[in-house]
Amino acid sequence: MLRIDTSQAAWVRLYTTDAKRDADFARDITDDPVGDHGVIFEAITTDTLLGFDTSPVPQGYSMESTPIADVPYRVVNLDAATATIDVDLIVQDQET
Asked: Looking at residue 85, what DSSP letter applies?
């Protein structure tokens, strides 16, 4: 993943499996994930920084028993206004 942009301030997390995403549900934004957490990528955007290039570039994969093309995610609205958050990720597929 090369870049992330959000439409409003948000906490965005990508995971290796649905189960690991669900297990991380209650983690506070100020806490680092621990153990075999499955977090591939985590970003916090603000009203003054809605996007940024990633460096180093994170890499991740579906680790479901049968891998899938998509990865599980969670997006939390950090803006004072209730709204749908649009998330744009610029990715570059790896060669196989």
From this structure: P
